[in-house]
Amino acid sequence: MIPGPIEFDPSVMEKMGQPTLSHVAPAFIESFGRAIEMMRDVWLAPSGQPFIVAGSGTLAMDMVGANLIEAGDNVLVVSTGYFGERYAELLTRYGANVTFLQSEVGDVVPYETVEAELASGNYKLMTFTHVDTSTGVLVDAKKMGELAQKYNVLSILDGVCSVAGEEIRQEEWGIDVVVTASQKAVGVPPGLALLVASEKAMNVWKSRKTPVGNYYCDWSLWLPIMQAYEARNPSYFATPPVNLIQALERSLELILAEGMDARFVRHKRLAQKFRYEMRSLGLSFIPTSEEITANTLSATYYPEGVNGGEFLGKVGENGVVIAGGLLPSHKTQYFRVGHMGIVSDEHIDRTVGAIKNALK
Ligand code: PMP
């Protein structure tokens, strides 16, 4: 029950153990093509361009930096914790002139502050972390998309801890790039960097004045590969992780069989159930209000006098693995429970039971 890697469906794991096909075998080409098509339905981005690349979520973030940033571009990074800091550092490496707005711990950056900054600066691009996995804070992605459109700025959503769990309507909300990784709510073991880019983002990339300075990330090498697989043609740039992509195809099938709306509702219901139980034990959370609290994980303060390491150990003895704190300033004060992907009432009940036993 950590916030990724999560538990995976047995039928997804079966794909991981199958004999590995050639990357140009017709059956694999079909799987890759279907995975690309289904990503548009999961991201709710019918005209977006999906990319599936071997790597982790950080690589998906890096692809944005490599392809959309040119030295001297003004970028606004709106941060709610650890992963916002990572994005600022990453974009700086590509020569971006980064303005960094950091929220108070457990809060979001006020939308008026974001708007004032967008209005005052000549920004090309804005990033925000939809759910910061260090704090469990949820940013209003719809509102951020609206602001980005109003000021004609490319919007980048770090959805590593939100895609396929939190509501995201990429195209309707006008978000240009939504990046994630396989190991969280997408429901596939670690190893895939996933993103969908809008037509606007692809056009900004196409009209670059300088070449992309990162070889492995360069969309000019990956776009023909995505297009070939989608057209069910063999192609090669760098060997794809065959089993992971077949596992992705299976997981996306399961996600779409549930339906995106039903999935968003289930995540919300189970998150509320978990937090109801924590509250009834007298515990409180890092996010300062329910409105800005994630549905994919909860960041809960330890009760006074409880030693974190000892508590996590005792929860483990009760058969449930949860995570400690991540935010350096608060690391020893809270624990994190992921509730995403195939999470069910039974997972929540057993986790709550283990936490209660550990506290006793
Ligand atoms: N962004 C967020 C919000 C994350 O939670 C994570 C991983 N926990 C990352 C980015 C980085 O992803 P990865 O570890 O897969 O590189």
What would you note in describing this structure?
This protein has a seven-stranded mixed β-sheet with strand order 1-9-8-7-4-2-3, sandwiched between helices. A three-stranded antiparallel β-sheet has the order 10-12-11, covered by helices on one side. With 360 residues, the protein is of the alpha/beta class. It has helices at 10-17, 26-43, 57-68, 82-93, 111-120, 141-150, 199-206, 219-230, 242-258, 260-280, 308-317, 345-359, and strands spanning 49-54, 74-79, 97-102, 125-129, 131-132, 137-138, 154-158, 177-181, 192-197, 297-301, 323-324, 334-338. It is globular and about 60 Å long. 42% of the residues lie in helices and 15% in strands. The chain has two domains: 10-258, Type I PLP-dependent aspartate aminotransferase-like (Major domain) (Aspartate Aminotransferase, domain 2, 3-Layer(aba) Sandwich), CATH 3.40.640.10; 260-359, Aspartate Aminotransferase, domain 1 (Alpha-Beta Complex), CATH 3.90.1150. It is built from twelve helices and twelve strands. Bound molecules: 4'-deoxy-4'-aminopyridoxal-5'-phosphate (PMP). The site of 4'-deoxy-4'-aminopyridoxal-5'-phosphate (PMP) has 12 residues, from helix 3.
Shape: globular
What is the name of the CATH class of the largest domain? Alpha Beta
- Structural class comes to alpha/beta
Cα-based radius of gyration, to the nearest Å = 20 Å
At CATH's second level, what is the architecture of the largest domain? 3-Layer(aba) Sandwich
Query: How far do the termini sit from each other?
Result: 20 Å
- Main β-sheet, in a few words? 7 strands, mixed
Uncertain residue segments: none
Count of helical regions = 12
The total domain count is 2
Give the CATH topology of the largest domain. Answer: Aspartate Aminotransferase, domain 2
Enumerate the distinct ligands.
4'-deoxy-4'-aminopyridoxal-5'-phosphate
Helix coverage percent: 40-55%
Number of separate strands:
12
Spatial order of the strands forming the largest sheet: 1-9-8-7-4-2-3
Could you name the CATH homologous superfamily of the largest domain?
A: Type I PLP-dependent aspartate aminotransferase-like (Major domain)
Averaging pLDDT over every residue, what do you get?
98
